[in-house]
Write a structure and sequence with these properties.
11 helices; mainly alpha; 3-stranded antiparallel beta sheet; 55% helix
Length: 259
């Protein structure tokens, strides 16, 4: 990705040397004898934690300490930051060593999330706290909102099942898994099903991430159907296991969730 395209996706300009440092993984640094981004990552982690903690404190005045802690943990998690990185196509700009690049490093959650933290630090060093806060708010606001509606386990599968059981449906979510690509860069696809029908699908670089993405997509589909009144609770005298009350297959128009 070109420099200008990356800073447009990130949302603020950064000096090229500082940006290059933030994008440099240690595998590249060791091969080319130049600094890597781990010190920036350390700083960015602390800045991110402060911004998210303050945001949760101010925007959720009725949340308990435990609830706030869970929302913060979810929003700054490796998975959440990796999702942000993929949304802005950050993997294309990573500076990786040859071995790390060949092994699929551009799509590894750990590398992507660390680089987001390094970019947060670079933004803070160049522009100060307020512009950095604006960047974090824009990129992670949806993750905090997700955490506020998830159950205490911050688990999309559990939250979907709670909605489904509230409608009178029996059973638990199950997944059908498939994969493509070479062993070092395999991509997994999961399709979630419950109550006799398929729901959402999702992709990930591990089976766990694919199941997580499919469960998230399923929750959003079911929540949207409930909000629109397109799905109704099962009548108490019914023994049918199928998900009733929907006018179309739940997978119609379903796209894999970000993973």
């Amino acid at each position: 990705m070109a420099y200008r395209e990356l800073v447009e996706q990130w949302g603020i300009d950064l000096p090229r040397p500082l940006l290059r440092r933030a994008l440099t993984h240690r595998s590249f640094a060791f091969e080319h004898d130049e600094p890597h981004n781990e010190r920036l990552e350390f700083l960015g982690d602390s800045i991110l934690g402060l911004i998210i903690a303050e945001k949760v404190f101010r925007e959720y005045p009725d949340a308990s300490e435990g609830d706030m802690s869970q929302m913060k943990t979810y929003a700054v998690s490796e998975k959440a930051l990796a999702d942000v990185a993929r949304r802005i196509n950050l993997g294309d700009s990573l500076r990786l060593g040859r071995g790390e690049d060949r092994s699929g490093g551009r799509n590894k959650d750990s590398i992507l999330s660390d680089t987001v933290e390094a970019l947060i630090a670079a933004t803070y060093l160049e522009h100060g706290m307020e512009p950095t806060r604006e960047i974090v708010d824009r990129l992670l606001d949806s993750k905090i909102k997700d955490a506020s509606v998830l159950g205490p386990n911050l688990d999309w599968q559990t939250s979907f099942e709670e909605l489904a059981h509230g409608l009178g449906w029996d059973g638990t979510m199950e997944f059908e898994l498939s994969s493509t690509g070479p062993d070092h860069a395999r991509v997994f696809t999961a399709v979630a099903s419950m109550a006799g029908r398929a729901w959402g699908s999702g992709e990930g670089t591990s089976q766990k991430n694919a199941r997580h993405a499919a469960a998230e997509a399923s929750y959003r589909i079911l929540a949207d159907l409930i909000e629109k009144g397109e799905v109704q609770p099962v009548a108490e005298d019914k023994n049918d296991d199928a998900a009733p009350g929907t006018g179309a297959s739940a997978t119609d128009g379903t796209a894999g969730a970000e993973s």
